[in-house]
Amino acid sequence: RQQNRDKNGQGEQTRQVIQGGEAQQGNHRLVAMGMQQPRSPLPKSVQHVIYGASRGNGQDVHPLALETETKVIRAEACATAGVPWGHVSSGCIYTGKNTDGSGFSETDTPNFTFRTNNCSFYSGTKALGEEAIEGVGQNYIWRLRIPFDEFDNHRNYLSKIQRYAKVYNNFNSLSHRSDYVKACLDCWFQKVPFGIYNVTNPG
């Protein structure tokens, strides 16, 4: 399974940073950028900003262009303003496991991408998006994998497997949504080095 590590390969610990629905931000101002309204309430002190690609979000815009361009817009805007930022990515840019049977770390080259010519469109765009923004300004890239939580929802992995007619046996990683958010925020509050992090649960 993918492991949560810092840039030196050390295991990182998750500390609760949201209490009472508010982000413990000290003197920092947190802004969440997205292309649509969030489905779940954000902490009270987090501002949400809706944005779109310069070519718009219409049917005539190819998803690959939209996926990459919106990431570059955020990266360059934040880099120009000198604002550190974090990008929610995905662990779906990997498939299987290493030849020694271990899971993938942040230093492993993605093996489920357009470059390896074996991926889904979704995974390919995620990998290209990371390439487009890596090293642009001060940023975190947080990889989520197969999200789940205690709320019944069509996007919840636990809800899916209860309703699917068939499920398949595979080697993969999971991310509890609340744990994922707390770990991402903790990177900022604890001044974890900028870079790529696989944010998944153990087990």
**What is the global morphology?**
globular
Uncertain regions spanning at least 5 consecutive residues: 1-25, 53-57
Overall structural class, as computed from helix and strand content, comes to alpha/beta
How many β-strand runs? 9
**CA-based gyration radius:** 17 Å
Tally the helices: what do you get?
Answer: 4
Would you list the SSEs in sequence order as H and E?
Answer: EEEEHEHEEHEHE
Would you kindly provide a brief summary of this structure?
The protein has helices at residues 63-81, 121-133, 157-163, 177-189, and strands spanning 18-19, 22-23, 30-34, 46-50, 85-90, 139-144, 147-148, 175-176, 195-198. The protein is an alpha/beta fold.
Question: How would you describe what is shown here?
Answer:
The protein has 203 residues and is of the alpha/beta class. The chain has four helices and nine strands. The chain has a three-stranded parallel β-sheet, sandwiched between helices. A two-stranded antiparallel sheet has the order 1-2. A two-stranded parallel sheet has the order 3-4. Strand 7, helix 3 and strand 8 form a beta-alpha-beta unit. It is globular and about 45 Å long. The N terminus is likely disordered.
